Amino acid sequence: MYGTVARMKVKPGAEEDFRKLMNEMSADGEATMRGWVSTTVYRADNDPRELWIAVVFQNREAYHNNAGSPEQDQRYQKMRALLDSDPEWHDGEIISGG
Predict the structure, then answer these.
(1) Whole-number Cα distances in Å, 76 to 10, 21, 22, 73, 90
(2) How many whole angstroms separate alpha carbon 44 and alpha carbon 7?
(3) pLDDT one-digit tens code per residue, 51-78
């Protein structure tokens, strides 16, 4: 499996809109993102506006195919509008996990 972990900070007052968008994106992922496995969003204990997202795909090819798609760019632009700045991304092979 392959995926990404992103650190981001949501704009003040946009937390609920972000949560709704993530739920929509996960539902959309099941229907449109080939090879998508899961998305998990964490909220940092020390800063409720700081979020960490872990997205899992079946393999590297599926991840990169999704990342390069116009549909994913549209989803990303909606998410980015709710953030203070660009997310910090960390991509890699998943070597252990449930």
Answers:
(1) 14, 10, 11, 5, 16
(2) 10
(3) 999 999 999 999 999 999 998 899 999 9
Residue 97 in domain? no
Q: Give the per-residue pLDDT at 97.
A: 83
The rounded distance, in Å, linking the Cα atoms of 54 and 5 is: 4
What's the rounded Cα separation, in Å, for the pair 77 and 74?
5
Total domains, the chain: 1
86 within some domain: yes
CA distance 29 to 67: 12
pLDDT at res. 15: 94
* Rounded distance between C-alpha atoms, residue 41 and residue 7, angstroms: 10
**pTM metric for this prediction:** 0.88
